[in-house]
Model the fold of this input.
Amino acid sequence: QVQLVESGGGLVQAGGSLRLSCAASASISGFNAMGWYRQAPGKQRELVAVRASRDLTQYADSVKGRFTISRDNAKNIVYLQMNSLKPEDTAVYYCNVALFRSGQKTDYWGQGTQVTVSS
Done:
């Protein structure tokens, strides 16, 4: 079982920056992915950014060039640096760890952290 603890959300003005952190309670090994999703009120949860264990990275089109995902594999932490924030980035951001074992995928989720961008 992997527990995820997020931090770094808050209120920021448009154009500002925030950095989210997510620490996993257990060592993340093998083929895996650590990433961030978000869910705005009335909308479905969507992928923001993900970084796999082989340094494969994917971003949502809406955040490319503004957000950067990084990992500290020694500490089992994933970060999301968010720059040039826009009001439409307002959402609850969830950390995700996906483990791939024997052809099966297991997802773990954090509790979510609120990001609010004011105009």
Notes: DSSP finds no helices and eleven strands in the chain. The chain has a mean pLDDT of 95. The longest strand covers residues 91-101. The CA atoms of residues 32 and 99 lie 5 Å apart.
